[in-house]
Amino acid sequence: MRVMPLAADSLGVRSMATYVEAGDLRLLLDPGAALSPNRFGLPPTSEEEEALARAVDRIGGYARRATMITVSHYHGDHYLPDVELYAGRRIWAKDPRRMLDEHQAARGQALWRDLAAHRPESAEGRIAEVGGVQVRVSPPLAHGREGSGFGFVVAVTVDDGMRFVHAADVQGPASAVATAYLLRERPDLLYLSGPPTYLEAHVGKDVIRQGLENLLRIVRETGCRVIVDHHALRDRRYRERLGPAFETGRVVTAAEYLGRRDECLEAYRPAGWARRRQGREARPEPGRGAARSPRTR
Asked: What is the CATH number of domain 2-282?
């Protein structure tokens, strides 16, 4: 099995887009990427915009290889509304008619209308065999803690003897139900969004603590390797905040899994804007050491 994160917060954009090849299966999971329009009171930097353009191009390229696409839920960083992306592929997507907040339900129903000719299927609980590889989908799992108001997501397991589980936006997992499901799946490799420490003031310290404890329990009881990214990487102190997880030696970011260094552009957005301002200030002005052109004389 080949697992390739295509875009992620550690790669500069909000995303968990992933491509998996196993046997005859060519699977694209959560084909979306986005930027926060306002973080620290600042819009995205040009570096973030460039990273997003690269991510969307990469997702589109792997979509052309894929025979199957799954969508875990309808936040804008987990799917793209481009119909051509899905054309000719089998589509399993979270049922937009149930267990979603109002905003996601409207987005999901719009996507399903646009994809009607391509016959999307409700993903919840679905199982299929593709050339000796089993793909199975969880029942709805809480987006973060139970009762968070953000609705539910679905996790996808790919099993060819090795088990890979893609568990978008379970945030830790923060939910006891999501934790029990992931323990039951016994993954060899698990990819999930870590505790949203950057939102601690909003969600509460107990949610962060529980998410980290559940993550450590999964590593301890299954011995799996874990890719932790997405929500957790929006905190500049993620190494410190998730120290016990990284110290297990079983946990890496998506960038590290690919052998790259982390580029958490959103978390360091103020520094990105500071560099841009310094760059402008560093350019010599006419009459201050610069050779003046005829236009500026």
From this structure: 3.60.15.10
